[in-house]
Write a structure and sequence with these properties.
The chain is α/β, with parallel strands linked by helices. It has helices at 19-23, 37-46, 61-66, 68-88, 123-142, 164-173, 193-206, 223-233, 259-265, 273-285, 288-298, and strands at 2-5, 28-31, 51-54, 93-99, 145-151, 153-155, 178-181, 187-192, 212-215, 220-222, 241-244. It is globular.
Amino acid sequence: MSNVDVLTYAGNPANLDGVVEEHGERYEFFKADIANADQMDALMTEHQFYSVINFAAESHVDRSINSPLNFIHTNVVGTSVLLDCARRHGVQRFLQVSTDEVYGSLGPTGKFTEQSSLDPSSPYSASKAGADLLALSCYKTYGQEVIVTRCSNNYGPYQFPEKLIPLMIVKALRNEALPVYGDGMNVRDWIHVQDHCAAVVAALFEGKPGAVYNFGGGNEMPNLETVKLILKQLNKPESLISFVTDRLGHDRRYAIDFSFAQRELKWKPLRNFDEGLAETIDWYLHNESWWQPLLERTGRY
């Protein structure tokens, strides 16, 4: 197993502590840019892989608004390079890990299905939609065994503290203002990272080439309610909440219909959100040595 990562500001080698000891020679880390065709070709020449799972992405919507080219480079060009190299080197399966954000915004009712139209609202989601279409085109054109997965918002340990849940946890722990966009009523569906990983494994081995699978947690919640839950569990006052100017192109609501994945992959989310959130808060509370150096090194959050 090879782990490829260019180690941008959000990359943290500490996330891999214990992996080498657990997996030994079956695991290697390869510092490289997935958009660099020479580096990807060299890796796939050296090793024979059954599959490529493309988790690599620039993913923070705010930064995509300020700097779209970085997202095109990694999410579109990088995916294209990986697809091409995988095809030339005889890699059997290619799994493209994507996002529910490619579908755009929902009204107060309904859920995204695999047949929902793509209607991205940000440079980030547009770059992911473009990558998805590239991947699926390789199935149709070349017969590559491509599978696309689209997931709702992840939460759990080791998440870089620019995402909503870890950002609010860290700021609350530091007694800083918690910035909430607009009126705070944008709805997100939360899935624990362990449930997402189990879904990806199921799609890799049980998914049908050319198929798209949606994964959700069944935990729709307005952002403001999520923030209040965090404050309550940390015994912090709601006066820390600070409403700020809404994000440009901010999608109002996401909700995932994952019944197709349940039927076809025999998968469903197992983690209860209240318990998972409590465990996540506890992890950040007891792992300041992990996130504090990130803030000092990057100056971002």
